[in-house]
Amino acid sequence: VSDPCLMPKVIRNCRARLPRFYFDNQKGKCKKFYYGGCGGNENRFDSKSECKKTCMKRMSCLMVFAHKAGQ
């Protein structure tokens, strides 16, 4: 999966505790988590607004496309 919005949240056991946001594609919203500072994937955003800007628009387009394909 190359779309960061479809990637799962990844938490590693590193020592940092940096507030970040990830897109929960099951719930269709951005959620806060604490990033340990190492590893992970691209589904990690510095702010909720960055997460929303990247993923919410993309997900709404996919949902419209899926709805039209199912008609």
Automatic annotation (TrEMBL):
Signal peptide: none annotated. One of its GO terms (cellular component) is extracellular space. It comes from the Eukaryota. Gene3D superfamilies: Pancreatic trypsin inhibitor Kunitz domain. Residues 5-55 form the BPTI/Kunitz inhibitor domain. Transmembrane segments: none annotated. Keywords: Disulfide bond, Protease inhibitor, Secreted, Serine protease inhibitor. One of its GO terms (molecular function) is serine-type endopeptidase inhibitor activity. It is found in: Secreted. The keyword Heme does not apply. This is BPTI/Kunitz inhibitor domain-containing protein. It comes from Capitella teleta.
